[in-house]
TrEMBL record:
PANTHER family per the UniProt record, alphabetical: BIOTINIDASE, BIOTINIDASE-RELATED
Keywords linked to the UniProt accession: Hydrolase
Enzyme's top EC category: hydrolase
Catalytic activity: biocytin + H2O = biotin + L-lysine
EC number: 3.5.1.12
Keyword presence, DNA damage: no
Domain of life where this protein originates: Eukaryota
Source species: Neolamprologus brichardi
Protein name: Biotinidase
Length: 378
Protein backbone atom coordinates (compact mmCIF):
# COMPACT_ATOMS: atom_id res chain seq x y z
CA UNK A 1 0.00 0.00 0.00
CA UNK A 2 2.78 2.42 0.88
CA UNK A 3 4.69 1.74 -2.35
CA UNK A 4 1.61 1.80 -4.58
CA UNK A 5 0.43 5.13 -3.18
CA UNK A 6 3.87 6.69 -2.61
CA UNK A 7 3.25 7.47 1.04
CA UNK A 8 4.50 6.67 4.51
CA UNK A 9 2.18 4.26 6.31
CA UNK A 10 1.87 3.18 9.95
CA UNK A 11 -0.23 0.13 10.87
CA UNK A 12 -1.01 -1.69 14.10
CA UNK A 13 -0.73 -5.49 14.17
CA UNK A 14 0.46 -8.41 16.33
CA UNK A 15 4.11 -9.44 16.06
CA UNK A 16 5.60 -12.77 17.08
CA UNK A 17 9.25 -12.69 18.16
CA UNK A 18 11.38 -15.63 19.34
CA UNK A 19 12.77 -15.36 22.85
CA UNK A 20 15.17 -17.43 24.98
CA UNK A 21 13.30 -19.99 27.06
CA UNK A 22 13.23 -19.29 30.78
CA UNK A 23 16.63 -19.73 32.33
CA UNK A 24 15.93 -17.64 35.43
CA UNK A 25 12.85 -16.68 37.50
CA UNK A 26 13.04 -13.14 36.13
CA UNK A 27 12.78 -14.21 32.47
CA UNK A 28 9.59 -13.11 30.66
CA UNK A 29 9.83 -15.63 27.83
CA UNK A 30 6.65 -17.76 27.55
CA UNK A 31 6.89 -21.58 27.53
CA UNK A 32 6.52 -21.76 23.74
CA UNK A 33 9.67 -19.67 23.27
CA UNK A 34 8.07 -16.67 21.59
CA UNK A 35 6.69 -13.31 22.59
CA UNK A 36 3.56 -11.84 21.02
CA UNK A 37 3.56 -8.05 21.03
CA UNK A 38 0.97 -5.37 20.26
CA UNK A 39 2.95 -3.66 17.52
CA UNK A 40 3.17 -0.59 15.30
CA UNK A 41 4.97 -1.00 11.99
CA UNK A 42 6.01 1.89 9.73
CA UNK A 43 6.75 1.65 6.01
CA UNK A 44 8.33 4.35 3.89
CA UNK A 45 7.07 5.33 0.44
CA UNK A 46 9.05 2.63 -1.39
CA UNK A 47 7.51 -0.07 0.82
CA UNK A 48 10.53 -0.69 3.05
CA UNK A 49 9.84 -1.45 6.72
CA UNK A 50 11.59 1.37 8.62
CA UNK A 51 10.30 1.03 12.20
CA UNK A 52 8.66 -1.45 14.54
CA UNK A 53 7.44 -0.57 18.04
CA UNK A 54 6.20 -3.05 20.69
CA UNK A 55 3.63 -1.67 23.16
CA UNK A 56 4.93 -1.35 26.71
CA UNK A 57 1.84 -0.52 28.80
CA UNK A 58 -0.74 -3.24 28.25
CA UNK A 59 -4.45 -2.84 29.07
CA UNK A 60 -6.25 -6.16 29.65
CA UNK A 61 -4.30 -7.79 26.81
CA UNK A 62 -3.86 -11.36 28.00
CA UNK A 63 -2.75 -12.49 24.55
CA UNK A 64 0.16 -10.02 24.48
CA UNK A 65 3.49 -9.81 26.28
CA UNK A 66 5.27 -6.78 27.67
CA UNK A 67 8.69 -6.24 26.04
CA UNK A 68 11.60 -6.67 28.47
CA UNK A 69 12.49 -2.96 28.20
CA UNK A 70 10.55 0.11 26.99
CA UNK A 71 11.30 0.79 23.33
CA UNK A 72 11.93 4.31 22.06
CA UNK A 73 11.21 3.98 18.35
CA UNK A 74 11.34 6.72 15.70
CA UNK A 75 11.64 6.99 11.94
CA UNK A 76 12.67 9.84 9.65
CA UNK A 77 10.78 11.31 6.70
CA UNK A 78 11.88 13.75 4.00
CA UNK A 79 8.74 15.88 4.42
CA UNK A 80 8.42 16.36 8.20
CA UNK A 81 11.52 15.04 9.92
CA UNK A 82 11.27 12.55 12.77
CA UNK A 83 8.13 10.72 13.97
CA UNK A 84 7.75 8.69 17.17
CA UNK A 85 5.51 5.68 17.78
CA UNK A 86 3.43 4.55 20.75
CA UNK A 87 0.10 2.77 21.33
CA UNK A 88 -3.12 3.37 23.28
CA UNK A 89 -2.56 3.00 27.08
CA UNK A 90 1.06 4.17 26.61
CA UNK A 91 -0.23 7.75 26.44
CA UNK A 92 -0.96 7.75 30.18
CA UNK A 93 2.57 6.76 31.22
CA UNK A 94 6.07 8.22 31.18
CA UNK A 95 7.66 5.50 29.04
CA UNK A 96 7.76 5.73 26.10
CA UNK A 97 5.52 8.77 25.44
CA UNK A 98 7.33 11.34 27.59
CA UNK A 99 10.75 9.88 26.78
CA UNK A 100 10.08 10.53 23.08
CA UNK A 101 9.23 14.17 23.81
CA UNK A 102 12.27 14.56 26.06
CA UNK A 103 14.44 13.43 23.15
CA UNK A 104 13.06 16.18 20.94
CA UNK A 105 10.50 14.23 18.91
CA UNK A 106 7.70 16.67 18.02
CA UNK A 107 5.52 14.45 15.78
CA UNK A 108 3.92 11.36 17.33
CA UNK A 109 1.73 8.62 15.82
CA UNK A 110 -0.79 6.98 18.12
CA UNK A 111 -2.97 4.03 17.04
CA UNK A 112 -5.44 3.12 19.79
CA UNK A 113 -8.46 1.06 20.79
CA UNK A 114 -9.66 3.63 23.34
CA UNK A 115 -12.80 3.04 25.39
CA UNK A 116 -14.20 6.51 26.04
CA UNK A 117 -14.76 7.47 29.65
CA UNK A 118 -16.27 10.80 30.50
CA UNK A 119 -15.93 13.25 32.06
CA UNK A 120 -12.10 13.29 31.93
CA UNK A 121 -10.83 10.68 29.47
CA UNK A 122 -12.86 10.78 26.29
CA UNK A 123 -10.64 9.89 23.33
CA UNK A 124 -10.47 13.24 21.54
CA UNK A 125 -10.41 15.08 24.86
CA UNK A 126 -7.19 13.45 26.01
CA UNK A 127 -5.66 13.32 22.54
CA UNK A 128 -5.89 17.10 22.37
CA UNK A 129 -4.80 17.43 26.01
CA UNK A 130 -1.62 15.45 25.35
CA UNK A 131 -0.81 17.52 22.27
CA UNK A 132 -1.25 20.76 24.23
CA UNK A 133 0.50 19.60 27.39
CA UNK A 134 3.50 18.06 25.63
CA UNK A 135 3.61 20.74 22.90
CA UNK A 136 3.64 18.20 20.07
CA UNK A 137 1.73 17.17 16.96
CA UNK A 138 -0.26 13.99 17.57
CA UNK A 139 -1.77 11.80 14.84
CA UNK A 140 -4.32 9.67 16.71
CA UNK A 141 -6.40 6.91 15.13
CA UNK A 142 -9.00 5.02 17.16
CA UNK A 143 -10.90 1.84 16.34
CA UNK A 144 -14.64 2.30 15.75
CA UNK A 145 -16.61 -0.12 17.94
CA UNK A 146 -19.91 1.12 19.34
CA UNK A 147 -20.37 -1.84 21.69
CA UNK A 148 -17.08 -1.02 23.42
CA UNK A 149 -17.63 2.78 23.21
CA UNK A 150 -14.60 3.17 20.95
CA UNK A 151 -14.53 6.17 18.63
CA UNK A 152 -12.63 9.43 18.24
CA UNK A 153 -9.56 10.19 16.13
CA UNK A 154 -7.74 13.35 15.17
CA UNK A 155 -4.74 15.35 14.00
CA UNK A 156 -3.68 17.73 16.78
CA UNK A 157 -1.08 20.46 17.06
CA UNK A 158 -0.52 22.87 19.97
CA UNK A 159 -2.73 25.36 18.11
CA UNK A 160 -5.22 23.33 16.05
CA UNK A 161 -7.39 20.20 16.06
CA UNK A 162 -8.91 18.27 13.16
CA UNK A 163 -10.93 15.37 14.54
CA UNK A 164 -13.98 13.14 14.24
CA UNK A 165 -16.02 11.71 17.10
CA UNK A 166 -18.99 9.54 16.13
CA UNK A 167 -22.26 9.88 18.03
CA UNK A 168 -24.81 7.23 18.95
CA UNK A 169 -26.75 6.26 15.84
CA UNK A 170 -24.05 7.29 13.37
CA UNK A 171 -23.09 4.65 10.78
CA UNK A 172 -20.34 2.41 12.16
CA UNK A 173 -17.77 3.13 9.50
CA UNK A 174 -14.35 4.71 9.09
CA UNK A 175 -13.65 8.37 8.46
CA UNK A 176 -10.62 9.80 6.67
CA UNK A 177 -9.14 12.92 8.28
CA UNK A 178 -6.81 15.20 6.32
CA UNK A 179 -5.09 18.30 7.67
CA UNK A 180 -2.22 20.50 6.57
CA UNK A 181 -0.11 21.28 9.62
CA UNK A 182 3.27 22.94 10.11
CA UNK A 183 6.33 20.86 10.89
CA UNK A 184 7.29 21.43 14.52
CA UNK A 185 11.01 21.97 14.74
CA UNK A 186 12.93 19.89 17.28
CA UNK A 187 14.31 21.92 20.19
CA UNK A 188 17.95 22.94 20.05
CA UNK A 189 18.54 21.23 23.38
CA UNK A 190 17.03 18.31 25.27
CA UNK A 191 13.85 19.31 27.05
CA UNK A 192 11.44 17.72 29.45
CA UNK A 193 7.82 17.58 28.34
CA UNK A 194 5.97 20.16 30.36
CA UNK A 195 9.23 21.25 31.97
CA UNK A 196 10.28 24.73 32.97
CA UNK A 197 8.21 27.82 32.34
CA UNK A 198 6.36 27.85 29.06
CA UNK A 199 3.34 29.31 27.36
CA UNK A 200 1.25 27.94 24.55
CA UNK A 201 -0.61 31.21 24.09
CA UNK A 202 0.64 33.95 26.36
CA UNK A 203 -2.04 35.82 28.24
CA UNK A 204 -1.62 39.56 27.83
CA UNK A 205 -2.27 39.97 31.57
CA UNK A 206 -0.99 37.09 33.65
CA UNK A 207 -2.84 38.54 36.65
CA UNK A 208 -6.14 38.28 34.79
CA UNK A 209 -9.27 37.97 36.89
CA UNK A 210 -13.00 38.48 36.50
CA UNK A 211 -13.36 40.63 39.60
CA UNK A 212 -13.20 44.43 39.64
CA UNK A 213 -10.01 44.34 41.69
CA UNK A 214 -7.38 41.75 40.86
CA UNK A 215 -5.66 42.39 44.20
CA UNK A 216 -8.61 41.03 46.16
CA UNK A 217 -7.76 38.57 48.96
CA UNK A 218 -8.02 34.81 48.35
CA UNK A 219 -11.53 33.52 47.66
CA UNK A 220 -13.78 32.81 50.64
CA UNK A 221 -14.45 29.26 51.73
CA UNK A 222 -17.48 27.52 50.27
CA UNK A 223 -19.10 24.28 51.48
CA UNK A 224 -17.38 21.27 49.95
CA UNK A 225 -18.58 17.74 49.40
CA UNK A 226 -17.13 14.41 48.31
CA UNK A 227 -18.24 12.56 45.18
CA UNK A 228 -16.72 9.83 43.04
CA UNK A 229 -15.54 10.70 39.54
CA UNK A 230 -14.01 8.00 37.38
CA UNK A 231 -13.54 5.84 40.50
CA UNK A 232 -11.55 8.54 42.31
CA UNK A 233 -12.74 10.45 45.38
CA UNK A 234 -12.90 14.12 44.39
CA UNK A 235 -13.56 17.06 46.67
CA UNK A 236 -16.07 19.40 45.01
CA UNK A 237 -17.54 22.86 45.47
CA UNK A 238 -20.71 23.95 43.64
CA UNK A 239 -20.75 26.88 41.19
CA UNK A 240 -24.06 28.48 42.15
CA UNK A 241 -23.36 32.18 41.60
CA UNK A 242 -23.62 34.19 38.37
CA UNK A 243 -19.88 34.77 38.76
CA UNK A 244 -17.39 33.83 41.39
CA UNK A 245 -13.93 33.04 42.64
CA UNK A 246 -13.81 29.64 44.33
CA UNK A 247 -11.15 27.33 45.67
CA UNK A 248 -11.26 23.65 46.56
CA UNK A 249 -8.57 21.40 48.03
CA UNK A 250 -8.06 17.65 48.15
CA UNK A 251 -5.49 17.24 50.88
CA UNK A 252 -2.76 19.79 50.25
CA UNK A 253 -3.51 20.04 46.51
CA UNK A 254 -5.73 23.01 45.65
CA UNK A 255 -7.57 24.27 42.56
CA UNK A 256 -8.95 27.74 41.96
CA UNK A 257 -11.60 28.88 39.49
CA UNK A 258 -12.61 32.40 38.53
CA UNK A 259 -15.74 32.25 36.41
CA UNK A 260 -18.55 34.27 34.90
CA UNK A 261 -21.59 32.67 33.29
CA UNK A 262 -22.38 33.83 29.78
CA UNK A 263 -25.42 31.57 29.61
CA UNK A 264 -26.62 29.78 32.73
CA UNK A 265 -29.21 27.04 32.33
CA UNK A 266 -30.71 26.57 35.81
CA UNK A 267 -31.57 22.98 34.90
CA UNK A 268 -27.84 22.27 34.93
CA UNK A 269 -25.57 21.97 37.97
CA UNK A 270 -21.81 22.55 37.83
CA UNK A 271 -18.98 21.96 40.27
CA UNK A 272 -15.23 22.47 40.62
CA UNK A 273 -13.42 19.33 41.73
CA UNK A 274 -9.92 18.47 42.94
CA UNK A 275 -8.20 15.12 43.35
CA UNK A 276 -4.67 14.11 44.31
CA UNK A 277 -3.80 10.48 44.74
CA UNK A 278 -3.28 7.08 43.15
CA UNK A 279 -5.89 5.93 40.64
CA UNK A 280 -6.23 2.15 41.07
CA UNK A 281 -9.14 0.98 38.87
CA UNK A 282 -8.22 -0.52 35.45
CA UNK A 283 -4.66 0.71 35.86
CA UNK A 284 -2.52 2.27 38.54
CA UNK A 285 -1.22 5.80 38.12
CA UNK A 286 -0.75 8.92 40.25
CA UNK A 287 -2.80 12.04 39.54
CA UNK A 288 -3.39 15.65 40.46
CA UNK A 289 -6.54 16.91 38.73
CA UNK A 290 -8.50 20.18 38.63
CA UNK A 291 -11.80 19.84 36.78
CA UNK A 292 -14.98 21.81 36.17
CA UNK A 293 -17.81 19.42 35.32
CA UNK A 294 -21.48 19.53 34.52
CA UNK A 295 -23.14 17.19 37.01
CA UNK A 296 -25.47 14.41 35.88
CA UNK A 297 -28.47 15.94 37.65
CA UNK A 298 -29.39 18.66 40.14
CA UNK A 299 -28.19 16.75 43.18
CA UNK A 300 -24.56 17.15 44.22
CA UNK A 301 -24.16 13.38 44.39
CA UNK A 302 -24.46 13.36 40.57
CA UNK A 303 -21.29 15.42 40.14
CA UNK A 304 -18.71 13.27 38.40
CA UNK A 305 -21.21 11.28 36.35
CA UNK A 306 -20.93 10.95 32.57
CA UNK A 307 -22.57 13.81 30.64
CA UNK A 308 -22.38 14.47 26.89
CA UNK A 309 -24.53 17.57 26.41
CA UNK A 310 -24.87 20.96 28.05
CA UNK A 311 -26.30 24.42 27.39
CA UNK A 312 -24.48 26.59 29.95
CA UNK A 313 -21.48 28.64 28.86
CA UNK A 314 -18.87 30.42 30.97
CA UNK A 315 -15.74 32.53 30.80
CA UNK A 316 -13.21 31.09 33.20
CA UNK A 317 -9.71 30.96 34.55
CA UNK A 318 -8.80 27.56 36.01
CA UNK A 319 -5.62 27.24 38.04
CA UNK A 320 -3.82 24.62 40.08
CA UNK A 321 -0.54 24.43 41.96
CA UNK A 322 0.88 21.15 40.74
CA UNK A 323 3.72 19.04 42.09
CA UNK A 324 4.47 17.84 38.56
CA UNK A 325 5.62 19.35 35.28
CA UNK A 326 3.27 17.12 33.31
CA UNK A 327 -0.16 18.73 33.09
CA UNK A 328 -2.56 18.12 30.20
CA UNK A 329 -5.36 20.68 29.59
CA UNK A 330 -8.71 20.14 27.86
CA UNK A 331 -12.02 21.85 27.14
CA UNK A 332 -14.88 19.61 26.01
CA UNK A 333 -18.24 21.10 25.04
CA UNK A 334 -21.63 19.72 24.16
CA UNK A 335 -21.92 16.86 21.66
CA UNK A 336 -18.21 16.05 21.83
CA UNK A 337 -16.81 19.32 20.46
CA UNK A 338 -13.34 20.49 21.53
CA UNK A 339 -12.32 24.09 22.10
CA UNK A 340 -8.79 25.45 22.09
CA UNK A 341 -7.85 27.23 25.36
CA UNK A 342 -7.43 30.96 24.91
CA UNK A 343 -4.21 30.76 26.89
CA UNK A 344 -2.26 28.24 28.90
CA UNK A 345 0.56 29.23 31.24
CA UNK A 346 2.96 26.91 33.04
CA UNK A 347 5.15 28.55 35.66
CA UNK A 348 8.39 27.22 37.13
CA UNK A 349 6.81 26.93 40.59
CA UNK A 350 4.23 24.38 39.33
CA UNK A 351 1.33 26.80 38.88
CA UNK A 352 -0.66 26.05 35.74
CA UNK A 353 -3.32 28.49 34.53
CA UNK A 354 -5.82 27.94 31.72
CA UNK A 355 -7.94 30.87 30.56
CA UNK A 356 -10.88 30.69 28.16
CA UNK A 357 -13.64 33.08 27.14
CA UNK A 358 -16.49 33.25 24.63
CA UNK A 359 -17.17 29.52 24.83
CA UNK A 360 -18.98 28.47 21.68
CA UNK A 361 -20.70 25.34 23.03
CA UNK A 362 -22.25 24.32 26.31
CA UNK A 363 -19.52 23.31 28.74
CA UNK A 364 -19.34 19.59 29.52
CA UNK A 365 -15.97 19.67 31.28
CA UNK A 366 -12.71 21.56 31.43
CA UNK A 367 -9.73 19.97 33.07
CA UNK A 368 -6.09 20.26 34.07
CA UNK A 369 -4.98 16.62 34.23
CA UNK A 370 -1.68 16.29 36.07
CA UNK A 371 0.36 13.08 35.95
CA UNK A 372 2.69 12.30 38.85
CA UNK A 373 4.72 9.70 36.97
CA UNK A 374 7.32 9.41 39.70
CA UNK A 375 4.71 8.16 42.21
CA UNK A 376 3.17 5.43 40.03
CA UNK A 377 4.96 2.60 41.81
CA UNK A 378 4.57 3.82 45.38
Amino acid sequence: MARRNNLYLVANMPDLQPCPLKTSPSSTCPPDGRWQFNTNVAFRSDGLLVARYHKHNLYFEASCDTPPEPEIITFDTPFAGKFGLFICFDILFHDPAVLLVQRGVRQLIFPTAWMNQLPLLDSIQFQQAFSLGANVTLLAVNIRNDRLIMTGSGIYTPFSATYHHARKGDPEEGRLLVARVPVLEPPEFEVEAGGGESTISVATDSGYCYQDNCDDPPPPSYPTFISSMMYDTFTFVLLNETQGDVKVCNGTFCCRLQYRWLLQDHKELYALGAFAGIHTVNGRYALQVCAVVRCGGLDQSSCGQEVEEAESKMDFLLEGNFDTKYVYPSILTSRMVLEQPESLEKAADGRVTMKHSNTKGGLVTTCLYGRMYHLDNE
